[in-house]
Amino acid sequence: MRGAVFSLWPDSRRDFSSLSEREILALAVAAEEEDGRIYSELAIRLGDTYPGSAALLEGMAAEEDEHRRRLLDLYVARFGTRLVPIRREHVRGFLSRKPVWLLKTLSLEQARQLVWEMEEGAYRFYLEAAGRTTDAEIRKLLGDLAAAERGHAKAADRIDEAVLGAAGRDSEKDEAHRQFLLTYVQPGLAGLMDGSVSTLAPVFAAAFATGDTWQTFLVGLAAAVGAGISMGFTEAASDDGRLTGRGSPIKRGLAAGIMTALGGLGHALPYLVPDFGIATTVAVAVVLIELWAIAFIQQRYMHTPFWRAVLQVVLGGSLVFAAGILIGSA
Q: 137 and 207 in one domain?
């Protein structure tokens, strides 16, 4: 779960606009190496169940290796054999992903979404990089690779089309829907989870400390609005969307902020009821519904096994809920 707070540590990553042509090429080499390894790992993970997809992913891994070789040849010709040790996590604007090899389960749809995100990000990276270079040969290579990666993005739709069939292909997510997931759904879900859980302690601490429904509602309202503003700014500042393809930071920030506030308001609104017992009973029921709904959403959209999501969200939320009651009753 992402915390709705700003980092207290300075961001030491470089701006993409500050990179030299030498650094851009070195970054591209490292990115192609990593992407090739990811595709190989996906192929291994899917090979037993979806051999067609595994073969396609192995082919993409081989193409990424060819891209790496072309970039490396040009780098050596221009700048020598000493490669700048720069990686994507050193540059502001790239999206951090959980390593594939740490995923205990990997569904076909999860692989399709990951392939599309990777290739869309690579396409945007090469397009942006080509626009910042003045060397004609470097610019040409980056432009060619941008076109190649754009074609690769369509490979996500070819993964096991034979298995999915015509009906399956028709129901699968097209590019616009994938973009909708990246820009609105994922930030919104992160905000909903953060707002629902992080505001439990202050709301129920206030409820059991004061026994006053109106004061409890005001505390809950303040916590929800504050968390929403913080989460919105955090999401908007995470990256500008140019390299990741995640869309406008303003749209993502609004989605995260609004859903965070709504998640916090869910268990604060019952305290508009003057009777403390009734309000608290309804609020507890709302909390249970929220936590189980979040577990379902994690399983549906983030491909987390349902019972693991229950353990993470329901158990974590219950601990926060209990902490609020204990503090309020002290």
A: no
Tens-digit pLDDT profile for residues 10-43: 667 888 888 999 999 999 999 999 999 999 988 8
Range of the domain at 35: 14-171
Sign of CA dihedral 12, 17, 22, 27: positive
> Taking Cα atoms as reference points, which of 86, 115, 87, 85 lies closest to residue 100?
115
Contact 242, 93 (CB under 8 A): yes
CA distance 150 to 158: 14
Return the beta strands (E) in 29-160 as ranges: 91-92
CB 20, CB 126: distance < 8 Å: no
Task: Tell which of 134, 155, 171 closes a domain.
Answer: 171
CA distances from 97 to 54, 89, 102, 103, 230 (A): 21, 10, 11, 11, 22
How many angstroms separate the CA atoms of 70 and 79, rounded? 14
Please check whether residues 18 and 163 belong to one and the same domain: yes
* Dist CA 143 CA 67 (whole Å): 12
| Cα–Cα distance measured from residue 253 to residue 234, given in angstroms and rounded to the nearest whole number | 7
- 46-56 confidence digits (pLDDT tens): 888 778 788 88
Helix, strand, or coil (residue 15): strand
Domain boundary among 128, 143, 171: 171
Closest CA to 148 of 131, 126, 130: 126
Residue 3: inside a domain, yes or no?
Answer: no
Q: Does the model's pTM come out above 0.85?
A: no
